[in-house]
């Protein structure tokens, strides 16, 4: 096991009807004049908007609204939010939504503290590992379990002018609190549920596939959590208003990306990097893109650490082929994973998402831009490797 430092300061408020006390949590976090950020009309149709607004009013919290967050959240809305924070003297930002909304709020929060003369995109998102300034607090009302941003230090934004999608991981990105009420998920469309489950599973796989030895404890934690997602995702897709299914998935999503499972182990993240180029260019749902890229990545890299893949496919995917027949066991395991993606309604090939190979060279170039030299931790992937994986995904 590697040395590690672990810190996760986000307060989690989890369970039935906790959303009704949002105003209290905002007030306790120091929010008096807040910016409430959300997507489109869905939270108004399903009643979440009214519940949150009523709670804020009961707690005498003043709020300014910023709507219009889209999947693969855009830099232009972040810049609009930064302007509002500065003009209105906002002292807390409340994200009401999923990962795209939360990441937008994180970027607004630290972006509003960026020194004069610096650019949030060019000087932070496109500079590898640069510390970000501490901005105003971010609180969360989670509506879509997927990205795990409600308890993570990560923030991913898309620049639609350059078609770059980039992330920043820094402890200043942690929300101060997250309100997680599984009942709000009942109205989610099946496809959004499926994409969210793909995303949370990927967050676990990115940590699981490692060359670090002596990580038995986090292996067991990851394997148990991944089996929960594999089990409950098809149930939630088919039966959206069963509380048990939703609570299991919401808790799994939150734990998947707060990096508890990643402590002391090298991580990979190549599938995420490669997928980011797809969703930046074609605006495909992130979870759907991961369902395409992850099996292709596996086909390309499994020989780097065959026993890690044998362990995954036997313990998590349930392959019963002899462990001595490694090549066929890996092939069977990848097929099992792809069948699970298909079961919940996701594509597993670029052609199924109407994406051809015309932009692969551009994707490889963008993937390794901004100071990056190689993708991946299990196996370092350079330009030719990245191109090969995209071709395997066709």
Kindly describe this structure.
By secondary structure, the protein is of the alpha/beta class. Helix content is 47%, strand content 10%. The chain has 15 helices and 8 strands. The chain has helices at residues 22-28, 42-45, 48-58, 75-88, 99-111, 121-125, 190-208, 216-238, 243-256, 270-282, 286-301, 306-315, 326-343, 360-367, 383-392; strands at 11-14, 33-37, 62-66, 92-97, 138-142, 154-159, 164-169, 177-180. A 6-stranded parallel β-sheet has the order 1-8-5-4-2-3, with helices on both faces. α7 (190-208) runs antiparallel to α8. The chain is globular, with a radius of gyration of 20 Å. The model has no long low-confidence stretch (mean pLDDT 97).
Short structural description:
It contains 15 helices and eight strands.
| Individual helix count | 15
What proportion of the residues form beta strands (DSSP E)? 5-15%
How far apart are the termini? 37 Å
Average per-residue pLDDT, rounded, comes to: 97
- What structural category arises from helix and sheet content? alpha/beta
């Amino acid at each position: 096991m590697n040395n590690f430092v672990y810190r996760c300061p986000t307060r989690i408020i989890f369970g039935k009807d906790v959303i009704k006390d949002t105003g209290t949590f905002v007030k306790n976090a120091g929010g008096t004049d807040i910016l409430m950020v959300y997507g489109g009309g869905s939270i108004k149709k399903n009643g979440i908007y009214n519940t949150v607004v009523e709670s804020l009013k009961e707690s005498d919290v003043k709020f300014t609204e910023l709507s219009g967050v889209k999947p693969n959240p855009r830099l232009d809305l972040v810049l609009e939010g930064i302007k509002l924070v500065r003009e209105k003297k906002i002292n807390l930002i409340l994200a009401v939504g999923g990962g795209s909304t939360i990441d937008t709020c994180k970027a607004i929060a630290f972006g509003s503290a960026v020194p004069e003369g610096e650019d949030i995109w060019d000087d932070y998102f496109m500079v590898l590992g640069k510390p970000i300034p501490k901005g105003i607090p971010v609180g969360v009302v989670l509506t879509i379990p997927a990205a795990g941003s409600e308890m993570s230090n990560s923030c991913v934004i898309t620049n639609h002018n350059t078609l770059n999608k980039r992330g920043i991981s820094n402890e200043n990105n942690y929300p101060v609190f997250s309100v997680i009420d599984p009942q709000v998920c009942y109205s989610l469309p099946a496809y959004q549920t499926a994409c969210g489950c793909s995303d949370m599973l990927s967050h676990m796989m990115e940590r699981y596939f490692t060359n670090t030895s002596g990580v038995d404890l986090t292996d067991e934690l990851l394997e148990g959590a991944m089996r929960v997602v594999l089990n409950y995702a098809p149930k939630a897709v088919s039966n959206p208003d069963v509380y048990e299914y939703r609570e299991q998935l919401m808790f799994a999503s939150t734990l998947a990306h707060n990096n508890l499972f990643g402590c002391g182990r090298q991580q990979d993240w190549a599938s995420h990097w490669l997928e980011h180029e797809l969703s930046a260019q074609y605006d495909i749902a992130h979870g759907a893109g991961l369902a395409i890229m992850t099996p292709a990545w596996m086909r390309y890299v499994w020989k780097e650490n065959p026993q890690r893949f044998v362990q995954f496919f036997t313990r998590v995917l349930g392959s019963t082929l002899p462990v001595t027949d490694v090549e066929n066991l890996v092939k069977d395991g990848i097929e099992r994973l792809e069948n699970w993606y298909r079961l919940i309604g996701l594509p597993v090939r670029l052609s199924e998402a109407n994406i051809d190979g015309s932009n692969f060279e551009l994707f490889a170039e963008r993937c390794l831009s901004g100071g990056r030299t190689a993708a991946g931790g299990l196996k370092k992937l350079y330009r030719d490797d990245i191109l090969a994986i995209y071709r395997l995904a066709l």
